[in-house]
């Protein structure tokens, strides 16, 4: 019930050097098997005339254990991995005409082992299926040339491996239906199509310099209904950067479907996704260009998300920390909307006799002074002093009003200290004949 050709014992490698011809199936089990701790290495070419009853392909079965194939050739069309690990022992050590079906009786693996392998296709049986690379010295590339749907995982390392796996769809169509974690390049050649199914994943890993990443490229067709997973950790310390994840200039088809998402990013509309880095930077992925950028955090939504606030607590008019200051106003003042009292940052108002316009005439002004973070300005969040004589609408905007003088001290040193890159804005409003004059800060989020 195990294998017609089997490596037995407690350790070591059993080698079959010559060619193998398969004309019939085993009464039970499969054709090749290796006992625990052993490797069965098949160095010769394999030819099979046994026809699979479901697919009509010429086939054989790797029953279980670690079996290595080095002979290559074109002598069969389907390799069923019941369980255990099929190991590639040379470039194209498995027949390039074969479809490899992994995990038909228990969990199974295809170990590229530092070699490159071209296959007609890859599929998953009823059990877990993993394709990876156990090499500690050489990356591997898997190429597909036919039409197949793979619901297993493609990852980098198997066992003690430390190298990557890349994927090439040379022709035909490959559908990926699971959460893949490999970080070699994905290349779709002109005659090929890749379909990332809903909830399936492709992973991209950024290096510590701009432009250093794996990507999805080629002249073929890509349809993306699943998710991108982007590991930004190595690049987070950069001030700015640009990474092309999908080369939309060469790939055709286009398309990001309605179910596409970027894991851990927020959909901000316009086919763009954002993720904050602290409070001052953000990543933006643009579906239209396939490019990820790192730059200043320039939106209210990214800023508020950086404090872990969501839902009603993230609204511009909300006050989740109950300090009496709305979130949008906290953004302008450089406050923290999630934790505690920021009342020391609130604007001040006083009556002064001054000459702010430098005409050598001193007169009485209402002086309204407030903090304005550069971040809020970059995000398009506007702040303006408004005045009124009786606290009853309408209020009058100070900007553009007759006689008003506005002075801005860039990156002013405040006490208590301000958030980074915060200006002092002083608004001088002529008192005129008014016996009372009130001021307030009006903040508008675009």
Any key phrases for this structure?
mainly beta, 38 strands, 7-stranded parallel beta sheet, single chain, 4% helix, 446 residues
Describe how the helices and strands are arranged:
Elements: E1 3-7, E2 12-16, E3 20-22, E4 30-34, E5 38-42, E6 46-48, E7 59-64, E8 66-69, E9 78-81, E10 84-88, E11 99-102, E12 108-111, E13 117-119, E14 121-124, E15 129-133, E16 140-144, E17 147-150, E18 153-157, E19 165-176, E20 186-196, E21 201-205, E22 216-218, E23 221-224, E24 227-231, E25 241-244, E26 252-256, E27 261-262, E28 266-269, E29 272-277, E30 281-286, E31 291-296, H1 300-305, H2 327-333, E32 348-354, E33 363-373, H3 374-378, E34 382-388, E35 396-397, E36 405-409, E37 422-430, E38 438-444
């Amino acid at each position: 019930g195990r294998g017609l050709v089997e490596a037995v014992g407690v350790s070591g490698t059993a080698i079959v050097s010559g060619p193998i011809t398969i004309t019939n199936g085993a009464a039970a089990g499969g054709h090749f098997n290796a006992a625990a701790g052993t490797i069965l290495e098949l160095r010769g070419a394999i030819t099979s005339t046994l026809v699979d009853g479901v697919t009509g392909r010429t086939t054989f079965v790797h029953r279980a254990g670690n079996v290595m194939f080095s002979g290559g050739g074109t002598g069969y069309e389907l390799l069923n991995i019941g369980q255990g690990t099929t190991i590639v022992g040379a470039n194209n050590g498995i027949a390039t005409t074969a479809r490899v079906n992994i995990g038909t009786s228990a969990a199974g693996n295809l170990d590229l082992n530092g070699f490159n392998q071209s296959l007609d296709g890859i599929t998953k049986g009823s059990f877990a299926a993993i394709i990876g690379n156990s090499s500690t010295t050489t990356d591997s590339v898997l190429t597909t040339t036919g039409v197949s749907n793979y619901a297993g995982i493609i990852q980098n390392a198997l066992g003690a491996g430390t190298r990557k796996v890349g994927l090439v769809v040379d022709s035909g169509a490959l559908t990926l239906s699971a959460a893949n974690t490999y970080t070699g390049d994905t290349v779709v050649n002109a005659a090929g199509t890749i379909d990332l199914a809903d909830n399936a994943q492709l992973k991209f890993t950024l290096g510590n310099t701009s432009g250093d990443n794996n990507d999805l490229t080629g002249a073929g067709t890509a349809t993306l209904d699943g998710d991108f997973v982007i590991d930004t950790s190595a690049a987070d310390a950069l001030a700015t950067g640009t990474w092309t994840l999908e080369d939309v200039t060469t790939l055709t088809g286009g398309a990001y479907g309605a179910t596409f998402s970027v894991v851990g990013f927020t959909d901000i509309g316009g086919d763009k996704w954002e993720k904050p880095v602290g409070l001052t930077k953000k990543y933006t992925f643009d579906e239209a260009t396939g490019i990820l950028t790192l730059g200043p955090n320039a939106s209210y939504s990214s800023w508020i998300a950086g404090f872990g606030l969501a839902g009603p607590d993230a609204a511009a008019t909300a006050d989740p920390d109950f300090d009496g200051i709305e979130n949008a106003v906290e953004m302008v003042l450089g406050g923290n909307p999630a934790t505690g009292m920021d009342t020391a940052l609130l604007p001040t108002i006083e009556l002064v006799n001054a000459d702010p316009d430098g005409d050598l005439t001193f007169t009485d002004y209402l002086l309204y002074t407030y903090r304005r973070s550069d971040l809020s300005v970059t995000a398009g969040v506007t702040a303006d002093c408004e005045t009124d004589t009786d606290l009853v609408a309408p209020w009058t905007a100070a900007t553009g009003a007759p006689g008003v003088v506005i002075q801005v001290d860039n990156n002013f040193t405040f006490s208590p200290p301000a958030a980074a890159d915060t200006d002092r804005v002083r608004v001088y409003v002529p008192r005129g004949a008014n016996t009372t004059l009130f001021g307030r800060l009006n903040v508008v989020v675009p």
